[in-house]
Amino acid sequence: VAKLCVCDLLVAQCDVNCCCDPDCSAADVSLFTTCSVPIVTGDSRLCSQKAAIYSLDVEANPPERIFKLIDQVNPSVFCIHATNYEQALSFSSPEMPTSENFDQLLKQFGSAAFSAEPDSWNMNTDAQNPSDANETYSYEYGVPIQTVDAFLRLPSPVVSSWCSDANPAGFLVNQATKCIRSVSVEKCGNIQAVSMLFYINSSILAVPKSSQMVNITVQSIVVQSLNGMRTLLNGSDVLRLPMILDELCINIVLGVSYHITYTDTGEIIEAAASFVLGAINKEALSIQQSFEISFTQVNTKPVPLSGNPGYVVGLPVRAGFRPQGYPFPVEILFAALNTNKYSQLTILQSTSNQDCLAAQGARTPILFGYNMISGCKLRITAAMKCQPLTQTLLDLLKGQSFPEYVASFGNSQAQDVLDWVPITHLHTSEQRIYNTFQSSCQIPVSLEIEVKWTKYGSLVNPQARIVNVTATITTTTLKQLPSGRERTIPITSSVVFTDISSPAEPGYKAWPTINAKLPFDFFFPFV
C-alpha cells in the first residue's frame, strides 16, 4: 500500500493535494491545503492489513508531508483472514472465439447457465467414490435438479430467441421462459423437443447422487386450436405424440409447466408436468414455446409472491398474523378470508353509490408503490346507537381481520419470523363535532396507512424492502341530532408509500469520482 497512489494521475508531474504522489517535491507539498486521499488500504474485507496514512504538518514552516504505515484491524466479525485463493488474485484472459474453437465454446458457454467444470454434469452413478456411500445428500437452493441421464431441462433463449435445451432447472428457483423453435410439418414427428415424451421420459433423482427416482407425471393437457381456442382434456394419462393429420401436425408441445413438491430436508418427492399442445400447418416455419417451473413444500399451501426478493411495483403487499400460543409453533399463519384470499394488505374499495353501509366487505389489495385513496359516505340518523355504529365503521375501515404483520420482502416465507414487520397502530382525534348523539360518541372516520420502505442490497440492483408500517385511525366526536334529522359524513381510507433510503456517501457507497484534468495528449494518437 505504500506504493499505491490513486490520486497520481499526471505522468512525471505533481498532482495538487495528492500527498502520496512521488513526483511532488517539498516545495510542491508546502502549497498543499489538504491530502485528497488521507488513507490508502487494500481489500477492506481483510481482517488485518497495512494502511498508509498521509497528512500535513501545517505547523511546520513550510508545511511538510507526514507518512505513517500502520496495521489496520477490521472490527467486523466476518472478514477474510488470508487471500490464499491464487486464481482470484489475477485476471485470466478469456479464450477468444475463432472459426476453429467457436463450436466448442458455444457448447460450453452457450446455455443460460454453465459450469466452470463441464465434466461435473457427467452423472455416472456407477463410479461414485466409495467414501460417499454413507454420506447423506440433499438439494440446496440453485443446485441443478438431477435426472438419471443429466439434469432437468428448462429450455430458454440464449444469444438469440431460439431455444436452447442446455439450461438446467435450479432447485427452488422459479423460472418462466419463452423461446422460438424451428419446426416443419414433414419432420414434426422426428423433432424431440415438440414431443411430450422429451419432457417426462427421464426420472428425477430424489436427492443428488442417489438411486431413488421420482417419475414425472402428467397433471393436465390443454389442446390449443389454430385460432387460439384452448380445451382442457378430461384424461391426462394418455401420451399424445406428434402426428400428421390432414396436412397438419397435431399434438406438438407449445408449453410445459413443471410443479415440484419437496420436503424441508431438500428431498424431491413429487414431480408433475402440465402441457399445452397445439397444431401447425405447412406454412409454419417456427413456433413459440413457453416453459415454467414452480416449487411447493409438502404440507404447505402455495402463497403468491410479490417479488424475489424485493417488492415489485404494482404487486400486492403481503400480510399475515401470528397464531395463538406463539412462539409455539414459531411461524406466521396467513389469514384465509373470503375477502383476502392470498393474505394481502387491503383497504376499503370505493363503490359507485358511495354508501358506506352497502360497501361492507368490498376490499381492494394495497399494491406496492401505489399511493391510494378510497372512501364512502355515511348517512347518520338520530335512531343510530353509538357502540354498534363505531364497530361497524371499524370493520368497514380495517376489514374482517386486519393483519398484524407485513412481509418485509416480496418473497418472505411464513417460517422466517424475522422477515415480517409488525404493524404499528396509532389513534388521533379530530376537533370537528357533529351534533348527533346526546352524549359524546367517538367514531372512526378515516384509516391512514403509511408504508416506509428502503432500497436494500447492491446499488446496481437495489431491492425494495419494507421497514415500517403505521396504521392511524382518526376519530371524531358526535352529538345528538334532533328527531327526524339526518347528517352525512365522509369516511376515507388512504395508503402512502415513503422511500426512506439514505443517499449514498461519496467514495463509499457510490461510485468514486475524481475531479481532475487529463493531459492534452492522454489519448494520443486518438482524439
Automatic annotation (TrEMBL):
Which residues belong to any copy of the Tectonic-1-3 N-terminal domain? 2-102
What GO cellular-component annotations does this UniProt entry give?
MKS complex
Q: Which residues form the Tectonic-1-3 domain?
A: 138-298, 307-499
Keyword entries, A-Z: Cilium biogenesis/degradation, Glycoprotein, Signal
What are the BP-aspect GO terms? Answer: cilium assembly; protein localization to ciliary transition zone
Record's superkingdom?
Eukaryota
Q: Which family does it belong to?
A: Belongs to the tectonic family.
* Quaternary state and interactors: Part of the tectonic-like complex (also named B9 complex).
> This protein is called what?
Tectonic-1
Q: Which organism is it from?
A: Pygoscelis adeliae (Adelie penguin)
**What lineage is this protein's organism placed in?**
Eukaryota, Metazoa, Chordata, Craniata, Vertebrata
